[in-house]
Amino acid sequence: MNRNYLIAFTVTAAVLTLLALAGWALFEIEPTIKYLPPSREARRNEYLALDRWLQSRGIPVREESSGGLSMISNAPEKHIFIQASLFRWNNEAPEYLAHWVEEGGHLYLILDYQTISASYLAHGPDWVFPDEVPFLLLKEFGITAGEGAEQPGLHYNTGAPSFDHGVSFEISEEYGALNIRDWTGLTRLIQVNRGKGKFTVSARPRFLLSEYLDRAPNARLAWAVFGAEGEAWLFIRGATKVQGLFGSLWRQGNLSVLIVSILVLIIICFWAVLPLFGLVKEDDEEPGKPLRERFLAEGRFLKRYGALDIYRETYLKEIKRRLARKESLLDNDKIEKRLLEIYGSPAGESAMLVRFFRGGRLAYGEFPKMVIIFKTILERI
Q1: Residues 62 and 208 reside in one and the same domain
Q2: pTM for the complete prediction?
Q3: Which of 26, 48, 75, 316 is the most exposed, having the fewest neighbouring CB atoms within 10 Å of its CB?
Q4: Which residue range forms the structural domain that includes residue 361?
């Protein structure tokens, strides 16, 4: 091996080794956490994690934005989740839904914020068991709903499920029920068995939301309510409105500035692309030479380099094309015989025609004769 190559290789390896040691000693690789915002689908559906979890376990999920008694009566599902503010209540609803539960249905009623607020505004602070239809359904199962104030002196317990603290529930002792309490000691979820079915009620179920479902207490309670029986569920619930691009710009920025900028950019682009307005300047064109002069100039050029046969090939190509189309002649011998018949010239010119046809070289002064002969034949075909 060349000595210079060996020295260069050794020096390069030493430098790379020193750089590697310096990097290992002086620098440190630290993991970075990159925040990925929720997708539009997740922001629209706050129960998306629950839906996918149930579907992955083979439990069908159907979602409706609103419903009424007709939807309940025609639904193939025997497990129904109802958000109270999205249900079309009437006076027959409490009795019908109670009977539906007795026949083997599982009804989960959510007293959401809209329903509670409407009742509070109608009855004032003392709104325990008002006369609105959703609360009359609770009465069918011996449940009372009250204000969900937290008890003082209690500390947050991470082992309890996550509930909305806007409302609490109580049930008469004669009803066999499952009471789920939060860390304040108040009952936030009640499940009553009746006939062949069961009735569940709670306020806004935070333990079912995607951002809380990963906690073990929430997941256990969600599975006990929705997944234990492994049957299909119908959800009558709303979707969260998600702002689009222009809504975010209008809320966080000045949309008028954006519109003005777009208009200015459009004007500049059109100004750069479109031609100037006004009359188009005409270029002064010099008159061209007559066709005869150009033809003669071309002939002299070809004659100078002995290439006048180009004209002969052009004429012969057109003659053969016409004879093939009109008389179906393709053989050269037949074409040559036919040319002599068409031209009908004396023996001397006939011999010249045969020589021209067979590719003989043009002698000085024969080019005009060749052009006359072939032009005459073309006019007679």
Answers
A1: yes
A2: 0.56
A3: 26
A4: 291-380
